[in-house]
Each structure stands twice: as structure tokens, then as C-alpha cells.
Amino acid sequence: MTYLKGVYWDLDGTIANTELEAHLPAFNKSFKDLDLGWYWDKKTYIDLLKINGGKNRILNYSKHLNSNLTKSEIINIHKKKQDHYLDLVENGAVRLKNGVMRLNKELKEKNVRQFIVTSSSRKQVKVLMKILFKDFNPFEFFIASEDVNLHKPNPEPYLKAISLSGIRKSNSIVFEDSIPGLRSALLAKIPTICVQSNIPVNFDSEVDLKILINSLGDEYESTKILKGPFISQGNINYDFLNRFLTNY
Hints:
This protein is an alpha/beta fold. It is built from nine helices and seven strands. It has a seven-stranded mixed sheet with strand order 3-2-1-4-5-6-7, with helices on both faces. α6 (122-132) links the parallel β2 (113-117) and β3 (139-143). α1 (19-33) packs across α4 (71-90) and α3 (54-64) crosses α4.
């Protein structure tokens, strides 16, 4: 039997829903600060999420409006956005998703090592960790945007995490929620579970998923398997993950 030794967590949308809760309002606050006359509604932002990276989204949107923003202007917008994002997080705009802490603690008890692999900056990760995991931090290390040359959907972030952990891919599981993240993990050839976020995505048309779930589940809300193996115990736990690895 293949035993689970390492779990690699994406951050935004997987550990916590952050896009609509903090990133989007932070973008709009930065636009207002700079009198750009821009406003991204929910639909616009969800469309822009198909583009990886905040600066790239700003650039793409400016081109759509035939606006000739300079590189320094884009950097300035993004810096203000990051400041607003950190302020929103520190003031409680973001919470852990259902079942995350439950599974974090169970895996820790079972001596399964845990890591974060994200496209967010190190500063953003540290603030989220301080707020969301102030009493219990199960993560051994994290890979942030500054730690790699190529970001998701390139496999480099997960390949680097595997290399640093020293754990075999066959003893590892990734939790992801987005198309770029899933492509990154699957191209790295690591067994991957997709957890829905609050951003609507048509996964079937984009990636070959073995399992898609609505949440990790807890004592109040059971996991629903939207695609993949049947779950009998009500939520995603250590035993389920080991069975998933064995049959992957």
C-alpha cells in the first residue's frame, strides 16, 4: 500500500477563499486611490482570473481599454492593491474554508508533513498565516511567487516543493482549486484533489481530473464528491487520502 507522507496545499481558493473577499475589493480600492475611473465587478474579475498574476490582469484590462499604462504605473497600481489586500486580511475579511483546520490537525497527528505552494507573494502568505494559523501552524515551508522563475500553470512550483521536501510523488497529494494550479500539479505528476472555491470553473473542459469535491467537510457539512471515488465517512480524512493514493 502507498502511504501518504506529504500534502501540498494551494492557498488562495483552497485554504481560504480570498479572491472576491479581499483581492477584488483591494483592486477597486487601488483604482479609486489613483483616480483611474476603473471598477471591476464580480463578472469582470472572474473573467480576469483566467490570467495568472495581478500585474498581468491590470495590463490586460488596460489594453482592453486602449489605455497606455507604463510598466511603472502598473507596478504602482499593484503595490497599492497589495497594501489594501493586506489591510483587508488583517481586519478579518478572509477565513479558513470548511474542514481545512480539521484536516490540518489530523494530518499533523498522523505525522504527514504539510506545505504551501502558491502564486501569492511571500508577504501575503506571511500575513495570511499570521491571521489564519496564529494558534496552530502545521506547515513546514511554503513556496511563494518569489521562489520560482516560472509560475503556475508551469509545474516548477510543485517540482521545487517536492525537491525540497524529499518526499516521493507517489507518497504525496496536492490540494488545488484553479485551472492554473491544477495544470501545475498535474504536469508535475503529483496525485491531485480539486476542491471547489467560490469561483465558478468548468473543470472538465480544461483538465483531466480524477476527483472534484465541494469541500473537505467537517462535523456540520459532509463532503460531496462531484467527480471521483465514493466517500463513506462523510469528509476527507487521512484514511480516505491513503485509499486515494493507493488507487491513483
